[in-house]
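Review form for a predicted model. The reviewer records the input and the model, then writes brief findings.
Reviewer: anonymous (R2)
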Amino acid sequence: MVDTVITAGVDGSGESMAAVDWAADEAVRHGVPLRLVHAWLWQPVDVPIVQDRDVQERAAHGILRDAQTRAAQRHPELECTAAVVDDTAVSALLREAGRGRTLVLGTRGHGRLLGFLLGSYGQQVIAAAEGPVVSVRAAAPDDARPAEGGEILVGQQGSPRESADVLEFAFRAAAARGAGVRAVRAWNLPPVQAYALGGLEVMDEAGGPVPYEEKALAEALAPWRDRYPHVPVAEHVELGSAGQVLLSQSPGARLVVVGRRVRHAPVGVRIGSVAHAVLHHAPCPVAVVPHS
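Model under review:
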């Protein structure tokens, strides 16, 4: 991962300003600069009242000035730059995601029951970004956020190599906050075909599916425990859907970190069911890290 900058996408909404706050805090924690980006592309339309390019351009720069002032008031010592990018939102944000350490976007809230709306721009960016993208929502008036230093919840899937980038992001986030990591691995009963193909032999040797999954999680965590010996680690293995298991562990978490496999659908790339569930229903910011 590139360590040069943390970037926040800004559109003037309350959600994007929450993203600015989160990104500024994160930049200070990691000792890197903050970059604020607003995508604005002049596209004349057949409506005279909105044809004034200068007015629209001044408004775009005004949005960034407000965001930069907000970040400066929050962290006067933080190095912060801002840029209006002459491009469509998705294209601009994808380019930013590939050049920095983390891209931060705002998410619109719908309340505790309905979850949170991940806008079409955000969904496209998260699904195709080369680097980690963090989705942040604006806090509701009755929102009870965990105190600084709360646990970093991370979902571990696949082999140690497959989940390396996801675990690295989680451990670095925890170390920067003086927090612990709660690593979750969900599993399901193997399909009937596995019995006929002898696919359960490895599980039998491990003493059953639960010990097998616990061993797989421990092996994936081992190098990161060694690299971050001062980060407390809790391990959780549970039978069930990965998205549901992660969400059941998310109350009290400061950040949820999930991976994203690159999968191409008929109409483009997909986020994946686990990331989709967590992005829409987790009560805290969510980081989606693409597998290398």
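Findings: The chain has two domains: 1-143, 148-292.
Further findings: The longest strand covers residues 102-109.
Recommendation: see findings above.
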